[in-house]
Amino acid sequence: MLTGHQLAETHIFEISYSGAVDAAEFEALRDQLVAFLDANDPADLLAVYHDLELAKIEPKALWEDLRSAGLEKKVRRAALLTDAAWLATMARGASLFIKADVRVFGLAERDAALAWLQS
């Protein structure tokens, strides 16, 4: 499941990943994210990765995700919450290629991630 929404009274858009993900979810999320980024400057992201199952991500969903390339240019900061070491490593590597400041937090560190995004 893939969901997203703006946190009330903030410039933060939260994306939550868990289980299986399909292309329609990516497309709907991208539309929400584009609208959020167009309306918010600065814009920050909080990405929460729960029990993401790579084998259950539709191939078309990955294509939809790739179509979102470029949106990160409108993001000031991105906090990633995950307990998966491979995801943390990927995020740190990807942060070398984007303008946004990216930090990785454990799932239990939500408050710290939000404090950083709001600072």
TrEMBL record:
User: Origin organism of this chain?
Assistant: Herbiconiux aconitum
Q: Which domain of life is it from?
A: Bacteria
Question: InterPro entries under this entry?
Answer: SpoIIAA-like, SpoIIAA-like_sf, STAS_dom_sf
Please name one Pfam family that this protein belongs to.
SpoIIAA-like
The name this protein carries in UniProt is STAS/SEC14 domain-containing protein
- Lineage, please? Bacteria, Bacillati, Actinomycetota, Actinomycetes, Micrococcales
